[in-house]
Each structure stands twice: as C-alpha cells, then as structure tokens.
C-alpha cells in the first residue's frame, strides 16, 4: 500500500470533479490523431498544454493554430508552455513568449514549467505571475514544480503541479501537510510508467492526496531518454471511462 496521509477534506466527495490535464503532446503534425481525440465531445479535460518549439516558436505554426483552434472551439482550455528553467530564465523572456502565445494561438493561460520550489525564488515568480495575469482575459496560471514547493507558491497561481514523475515513486509518495489548507482543484499530479493493472490504484492515490487535475500514462521516460508525456497512454479509453464524461471548465 502507498504511504498516504489521511484523506483531504473534500477529496473524496462527489463535489470535486477529477479531470485530465494534458502536459503537452508531440507536435500536431506528428500526432494529429491524438490532438483530434482531445477535441472529442465529453472528454474529461481541465486543460491542454501547447508547446510549439520549447515555447511559442519564432512564428505562428499553422498546425498548432489548427489544433489550438479546434480545442478552443470544443470548449477546452489551452495553456501555453513557458519554460522557467528552475528560475534561470529572465522574466522578460517569459513574458515575451507569453504574449506570442496569446497573440498567435489565443491561449487561455500558461503552464510555467520547471518552476523553482525554494522560498528564495518566490518573489521573482510572484512578479512573473503578476505580469502573466495582464495577458488576455483572466488567464489560468499553473506552476509546474513537479514536487511540493514552499507553501507560499500556492498564493500565486490557480494550480500547482506537486508531483510529476514515475509510478515507482508515486505509489509510495506522501502529500505535504500544508496542502490540506487548499481544495483539490488547486493541485495537479502527472504520473508515468503506470501499468494498466495499477491504474485504479493510481487514481485512488490522486483522490486521497487531493489532486483534482491528473495525467496518468503507461509511457515511460526510458531512463531519462524520452518524454513520457508526448504520446497518449495506451489505455486512454480506460482513463476516460473511469473518470467519467464531463465538460471542460
């Protein structure tokens, strides 16, 4: 059994709608069927991340324009991926990329990926998020830490990615105590390398640990040589059926 804390308040109630957050599939030219599947009515999605070329690219990409437009027409929130490089990327560069994402692809918000976690980096991330809030109409901001950050980050974004990693770590993981002060809608978990036989167990852990936005896949990182998020899991239909059909927010 995984090492778990007590169930979070509200985490197992029917009022919390668990749905999928897509960390970012391969370019739509390479994975057209997978992008088309995401726009299918009733697919339980909270949002989909668009990453054109480690960001928005240098010019509008027609394939990404089409994919993003199809999702937005289906009522799916699209987020542009911004790489914070653990705090090393200048704020001005991140904001420039964010403007390009919004102007070219009309994104609904941003995933600030590889976001730092330490308290010392919090003031700069706070300033970055404040600048991103001025782009578009009430953009949805997700901080992609991949682990539990200093709790102060929770006050500066709509959601935090507090786990991103392999099933071998996730099944024995423990949620940080401070997360109990926030509803499950504030947290996202991304887990790769989950065998089909353990899918139900992984979903139970996400509920117990209080994460309402999830991504679970059987793809692996091949020891760090591959991106486990770039392709749809082989049991995608199983995930959809277990979570249940819903409409995107």
What does this structure look like?
The chain has 249 residues and is of the alpha/beta class. The chain has helices at 32-38, 62-73, 91-105, 122-133, 167-170, 199-209, 236-243; strands at 19-22, 45-50, 78-83, 109-113, 140-144, 159-166, 187-192, 213-216. Strands 1-2-3-4-5-6-7-8 form an eight-stranded parallel barrel, surrounded by four helices. It is globular and about 45 Å long. It starts with 18 loop residues before the first strand and ends in a 6-residue tail after the last helix. The model is unreliable at 1-14 and 245-249 (pLDDT under 50).
Task: Give the topology.
Layout: E1 19-22, H1 32-38, E2 45-50, H2 62-73, E3 78-83, H3 91-105, E4 109-113, H4 122-133, E5 140-144, E6 159-166, H5 167-170, E7 187-192, H6 199-209, E8 213-216, H7 236-243
Helix pairs in contact: 3-4
